[in-house]
Amino acid sequence: MKKIIIWLGLVILLLGGGFTLLHGTTNSAQPQPARPSSTKVKRHNVSPKLTVNALQHNRKLAYSAIIYFAIKHSQLQRWQEVSDFSLGWQVESYPHKGQTKYLVWPDQHIQDSAKNLAPNWFRLTDQQHVLYDSMIVHSFRKDQTKTASLAEIVRQINADHAAAKVRRMPQKMTIVTH
Fold first, then answer.
1. How far apart are CA 10 and CA 34, in angstroms?
2. pLDDT tens digits along 53-101
3. Nearest residue to 135 via CA among 79, 93, 72
4. Per-residue pLDDT tens for 116-136?
5. Torsions phi, psi for 70 (to 5 deg)
6. According to the 3-state scheme, what is the secondary structure of the chain?
7. What is the pTM of this model?
8. What is the side-by-side order of every strand in the sheet holding 99-106?
9. How far apart (Å, rounded) are the C-alpha atoms in residues 133 and 136?
10. Which residue, among 129, 172, 166, 128, has the nearest Cα to 50 in the 3D structure?
11. Which one, of 149, 146, 151, 156, lies nearest residue 121 by Cα?
12. Distance between first and last Cα of the chain
């Protein structure tokens, strides 16, 4: 009789354990339905778009946008010399024929002794357009130039989703005024 009770208790215990594993003991233990990974929406910190007005009221931001556009979209090869975003830039402004000419050097901490070759430069014409200039090294050919409007520069930066990057650039920029 003892053997039967032990066997019967063991069978009841196994059945009860199996039932618990199959159906769960409480509602809170039930697994949540799996969500397909393709429906997940990844949210990025979206920086507000740049505007021409913002550039006109913040000169370092304007210089940053102008330099970014030159590096990424001007197709003036020498502007790649200032493309190291970790080193930053030194922008020197000089009066030139009633306007200001902005020389752009690589490295925000560049010393005068390292300024051996004529740099790239830009001018703001009528405060709405930028004239880029790039000397061709070891050549007597005419400098390469490009003109772009501030509106075109802003549109391109926003299309590149680079507004946040451009907004960080002034932290790596030194301005020298002559």
1. 36
2. 999 999 999 999 999 999 999 999 899 999 999 999 999 999 978 889 9
3. 79
4. 888 999 999 888 999 999 887
5. -60, -45
6. CHHHHHHHHHHHHHHHHHHHHHHCCCHHHCCCCCCCHHHCCCCCCCCCCCCHHHHHHCHHHHHHHHHHHHHHHCCCHHHHHHCCCCCCEEEEEEEECCEEEEEEEECCCCCHHHCCCCCEEEEEECCCEEEEEECCCCCCCCCEEEEEEHHHHHHHHHHCCCHHHHHHHHHHEEEEEC
7. 0.73
8. 144-149, 129-134, 120-125, 99-106, 89-96, 173-177
9. 10
10. 166
11. 146
12. 109
> From CA 102, how far away is CA 66, in angstroms rounded?
11
Q: Phi and psi (nearest 5°) for 98?
A: 80, -5
89-96 vs 173-177, strand pairing mode: parallel
d(CA 76, CA 72): 9
Copy the structure tokens of residue 55: 């550039």
The answer to whether 104 and 122 have CB atoms below 8 angstroms apart is: yes
